[in-house]
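Title: Request for sanity check on Tetraspanin prediction

Description:
We are preparing a figure and want to confirm that the structure record we downloaded matches what your pipeline produces today. Could someone re-run it with the sequence below and paste the raw structure tokens into this thread? We only need the token string, no images.
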Amino acid sequence: MLLTFFVILFFIFILMLIGGILGYVFRNQVDDRMNREMISTVALYNNDTAVTEAWDSVQKNFRCCGISVNGAKGYQIYQRQNRPSFGGGTGKDKVPKSCCKDPNGNQERTCTQTPDDPLQVYQEDCYAKMKDFVKYN
């Protein structure tokens, strides 16, 4: 039994080593792929439930908003899509509620209509935050 345990542990170690080497060798491809996927899925926000939930989770957990494209700030990608509303808002919402800073736990958020205010809306790009997270973990 001890020999079986050692063999299984050895195989797990080898798999982890191979995974680390492959991750290092293909890190640029992973970076490019992540960027392309984030750009393509942000256009599906509010049209696909899984994508919407994923973006909301990323934006809340990483304290960011959208993804920068062609020099525009992250949250501006939502403004360019000319959507009438985000998440059943008033029709004037320019960014999703998951982009809002909420220091007091207040559910009445008006920041979705004023995305340029850094006190109310996360200004950071989600791609940069996720890239740093993946890089350091």
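Thanks, this matches our download. Residues 30-136 form a domain with the Cd81 Antigen, Extracellular Domain; Chain: A fold (CATH 1.10.1450.10).
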